[in-house]
C-alpha cells in the first residue's frame, strides 16, 4: 500500500493510531480470526473489537469475509497489506531553475522484451498479451500500462537546456512494479536503469501488487491483475546517483554526456540478473499516481 501526505490517507493514519488496532493487525498477520477469537485474545468485549475492525476495514488494511465454521457461517477477518510506503511531498530545489518533461509510458523508441508481456490503454488491451510483436502496434502510443519479464524499454526525450545553462540535477520519477502472471505481492525483480547507455545501477523491486485496487486503475481491469506500483525517483547529481535518497551508484552528471540534443533512458531486466522478476510500468490511468514518466532538469545559468 502506498500513502501520501494528504487527506486521502488520513483514514489509514487514524487506523494505525491505536495500540489495540496494532495488536489486532499483529494477530491477523499470524492467522485469520473472527470477532470472538480476537476478543478472547485481547480480553475485550466483542462490541469493542467490532468497532476496531470496522475502522481497519475502512482503511483497507484488513478484509472480512463469510466462511463456514463449526457453528455455521462466520465472519473472519484477515490482513491484506504487508507493507506501507509513505511518499512525502517532492523535494524543492530553490537555488536552481527547472524544466520538466512528462513522457507517456507508450512513447518508447526501442524495445526488446520476452513474455509474459503486454500493453493496455485505459480502455482495452493493445493487441494480444504475451506476443512481443504488438509492442510495435501503432496503438502503443496510447499505452498506459506496460509489462514484460526480461528485456528493456528505451525512451528518448529532448534535452531542454540551452548553451548558457548548466545542469545541476537530473531527476526521473515513475510508478513501477515487478511482473508476474496476474500478480504476486512478493515477487522480487532486479530492475536496471540506464542514461545515454551508462548503467546507473540496479534496484530490487519487492513485488507486483494487487492487495487493493489501484486508485486510478480502470474498472474493466480485473482485481487479480497488477493494480499499482511503487512511485520511485532517481536523482543524478555531481555527488552520484540516488534512488529515493539511497545511493544507487557513484555515477555522476559528468559521466552522462548530457550535452547532446537527446537524452535516452532505459528500464531493463537483464538476462543475467539474480532475480528475473520482470517489470510493470504504470502511466496515467493506472495505479496510484496520475503521472507518466517525469524528467526534471534542474539547472543554473553559466556566468559570462
From TrEMBL:
Residues 1-95 form the HTH arsR-type domain. It comes from the Bacteria. GO terms for molecular function: DNA binding; DNA-binding transcription factor activity. Pfam families: HTH_5. Keywords: DNA-binding, Transcription, Transcription regulation. Gene3D superfamilies: Winged helix-like DNA-binding domain superfamily/Winged helix DNA-binding domain. InterPro entries: ArsR-like_HTH (IPR011991), HTH_ArsR_DNA-bd_dom (IPR001845), Metal_resp_trans_reg (IPR051011), WH-like_DNA-bd_sf (IPR036388), WH_DNA-bd_sf (IPR036390). PROSITE patterns: HTH_ARSR_2 (PS50987). PANTHER family: ARSENICAL RESISTANCE OPERON REPRESSOR ARSR-RELATED. This is ArsR family transcriptional regulator. It comes from Listeria booriae.
